[in-house]
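Recall from the previous lesson that a structure prediction takes nothing but the amino acid sequence as input. Here we apply that procedure to MFS transporter from Steroidobacter flavus. The sequence below is the only information supplied.
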Amino acid sequence: MSPTIEHSARAKFQWRVLAPIVLLIVLSSLDRVNISFAALQMNADLGIDPHGYGLAVGMFFVGYLLFQFPSTWVLTRVGARRWIAGCVGLWGAVAAMMAFVRNVEELYVLRFLLGCAESGFAPGIVYYCSSWMPKRYRANSIAVTMLAIPASVIIGGPLCGWLMDVSNPMDMPGWRWMLLIEGAVTVAMALVAYFIFVDKPADARWLSDAEKDWIANALVEEQRESKPPAESSIKTALLDPRAWLAAGVWCTTLIGANGIMFWLPQVIKEMSALSPLAVGMLAALPWVGVAIGMVLNSWHSDKTQERYRHLGIALAMGMVALLMASAIPPSPWSLLLLFIGGLGLGGAQGVFWSIPTGFFHRAAAAAGITLINLVGNIGSLAGPYAIGIIRQQSESFSAPIWFVAAVMGAGTLLLASLRFSERRAISG
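The prediction returns the following tokens.
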């Protein structure tokens, strides 16, 4: 097959599939994380303490974990186009409804429902992308989709702050107006998504026949190199120790990412008397590091076709930077260290999914990816809640940072075990 065909197929995939997915993930992450900016006003309005706020953050991940498998099961039955539009519309509606909560109990319920609505989106997108490109391009492709998460904070932080500061025609408190507008935009994008996406490459009218053939042949050749599962896809994933070790590694990276995502605005607010807009701009700084880390590490990993060292070094760098940030007084230097910590976290997340999508056969990929994401996101549930408890008990933010750094250190040990298990599987 001509290299020109390969290049054009990849370019079209990036613009017609990846770019819209990135936009939707930006909205997904923003509707999930904007509670961290709303908390600057909402916590006082509703009488929420640090423990209660940590629980509200965590309730999202209860729903997110419970509905992972049902959501991806629906994906395989109804096709990507209907599934993507349905997920986006549902979570957008729930996100907009949070603007009208009257007490913390209603906030808990809506955060839970938001998690249910978003539950299968991330693993479904990983699975969807793996049906378009062979694994030699997968680290960079998946990293591009994950780049939307730091982008949502880099763009969304100042946006949330601005929406909270600006006067609005409904005369709502700033945090309510911000939640309403951002949720409504997501609902509108669900309608657009229905007409943008196709279920599979063969349905894409914007691909030539030669480009469709290249994608199909590349994926078929890839599957010949891996052994198809003898058992059902879910059972295969459950019995594979590599899936559980990978889930543990993913869990540690998510604890680190969510620790920064949901608590950093309050750290900055406590250190200063800044406006919500200024807090949003400063809180975006570590996420600039996350974005740069994702792009550079995934690009170099694809170039060298090495995954484990890229992931391990990134995790270790994030851990060391966070420990150093907690050891010095609040200052520009501590923000710089948080930026470096973001580089490590982003580098780890950008490379991670190229490992499990490489060792799962296509027949077990959806179940395996969902299992890893489900178990890994226990960290997203437990991490913010644990940080809230540690924060309330210690009355400082140093102890929660030590907790996050220790968890990331454990992730490097799990990664070493995963590498050993992968070598045994290959040699066996």
